[in-house]
Amino acid sequence: MQRSAFGRQIAALLWSSEPVVDWGSLDIATRNRLAKRATVISIVVIVLSNAAISIETFLLVQLAFNGGVLTYDTTIGASNFPAIVAAVLVGLVLNVVFGLAMLSPQVRWFRTGSIADHDRRKAVQHVPFGQVLATVTAWFCAVGVYILVAERVTADRIIGVTVAFLLAALSSGSLTFLFAERALRPLAVVALHDYPATHAMQSVRARLLAAWAVGSSVPLVGLIILNVGRGLDILPRPHGRMDWATVILAIVAVTAGSRVIALVARSIADPLMELRQALFKVDQGEFDTRVAVYDSSEIGVLQHGFNDLVEGLEERERVRDLFARHVGDTVAERAMISGRGRSGTKADVGVLFVDILGSTSMAEHQDPRETAEVLNAFFTIVDEVVTRHNGLINKFEGDAALAVFGAPVEHPNPAAAALAAARELARQLRGELPIQWGIGVCFGTTFAGNIGSERRYEYTVIGDPVNECARLSDLAKTVNGSVLANAAAVHASEGEARHWRSVGTRVVRGREEPTELFMPVEFLPHDPPTLSEMLSSILRPARRTLRI
Prior knowledge:
Membrane topology: Multi-pass membrane protein
GO molecular function, one term: adenylate cyclase activity
Pfam families: Guanylate_cyc, HAMP
Subcellular location: Cell membrane
Keywords: Cell membrane, Membrane, Transmembrane, Transmembrane helix
Structural class: alpha+beta
């Protein structure tokens, strides 16, 4: 799972000098070190942001009550300056204390590495709201400190300072919410790892409202209060050519607005970027892709939904892969496209049947695992050769394999493909496995389709060429060369026919008419055997005798 560039920068700044991918796998020592680092940096960020807002608030209060004159005597040299400084300092300290009090239980849990229960997950998700409450409470306490410390406190001054500090609390709380939501994502990743959010707790709307409050609402409300106060003669009118109170409000709107908009934009863009990157990976077939679920808004629900979706796709792909391994890629793809049902068509196909000689004896005298290894090696070679010639392994049955060329996908010359595959298969089996076998090749019209019941069926080919091919495979075990093909297959092929030569006719078991037999030229003796030699070979006692 990848994080966006800005997300990695935030994680590196707060938690580690190196971005962390799997927060749940950290050891206790690393968790303690990272938690300490994040706590210290968070305190610094909170203090600096609140200090900046305090300076803005102080200037606005002073300018509002002195007619917008920006001088030393009306700002730093004013009599109420110590009271405001004291109020701000107390507010900063209380903000840190309250914030740590609400954050500490979650940090302690993170350090232990224990699994989050339901209450813990809720507590982690509520941390940003708790930080907002701590910030607002601290600012209200600051108002009380100002009232206690300031000299010549009037009702107008108390109202003005209270309104100013209230607006500051709103602005600071919004910034704190956005920062806390982003800074505490590692905790959310760990807490929501096994139980992701299924509904929004902190909506995107809340973030946008926070951005609107800081960038537009607070400055505009301040401007309205300033002008209403002047209109009611509660506040003095501007004395100079420049109304610095209005200018400061505009500067606050621009600077604070840009800060908060950047935070909100990143908080929305980063997870969406991660989702886009993850979608690209899934599109490339990487179904093990997941995104970290750390957002408590609708985006977090989307992250959770994406992971569920990809998990379903991964399971579907596993089932499809298993299905394809059982019936073959071509049949699996055909079944998924055409749907269910017992159906089929007539097709001219090339059929290849290969069977091992003496497998029963091998199973009787060998360790079953050794027998399985031989069969696996045998079937692997068969599958590779048939696939290279665009054929389909219709079934593995015992120690035999049936391959079809021309169904379910049409082949321009199925007979030639079956014959070429038989020659290559014979060469490879001779060179790699110390076993005897027989290969039969036929060509003809068959029924190709799904056979079985409504609840369970399989794709297969049925017809005389299939039966004849099995008989030729048995017969091939008794002759030199171990490969036999019928005349229909050789005559239906074009360039492949020159590699085969007729070796006579036989009445194959189960048939009445004689079948003309062909063998690959490369497997024939230098002098072609006569009919009597072939009969002698077939009837030799040392070899298996077949009734033909």
